[in-house]
Amino acid sequence: MYPYRKAYTVSEAIAKMEYYCSYRERCHKEVQTKLREMRMIPDAIDQIITHLIREDYLNEERFARAFARGKHHIKNWGRNRIVSELKSRNISKFNIANALEEVDEKNYIQNFNILAEKRLAQIKETDPQKRRRKLADYLLYRGWESNLVYDKVRELIV
Known about the structure:
The chain is mainly alpha-helical.
């Protein structure tokens, strides 16, 4: 009924997790989930995570900073979306605050303006009220602050 799953020793699991953490930054929650998928017992999970932290394969501050930097630059997410995604990964408030320092304020506003104008050009709706709504919904979903969004919508759509 269930497909065969390999049973891992602690040392095999450590080697697998070292590789897993070395090619991309990971948070503790991702590593725990992966270890549970490998059917490791809770004591072994704690031991493996402790090893990964001690050997600097797992560092939540480094993960949070890389996450914030990447999601802002690549996916054009705003601060609200970045914060909510980090919270869903159980990152501490301290690390979230540090991660938001990675987003340069001048660059943040510049990216926001470019994204808003690009999205407005894609909206084919002719009714100004519906255009405003679509643009605002898009930007709010991306995690941009509501005061920025509504000011920009008023500026772009008269």
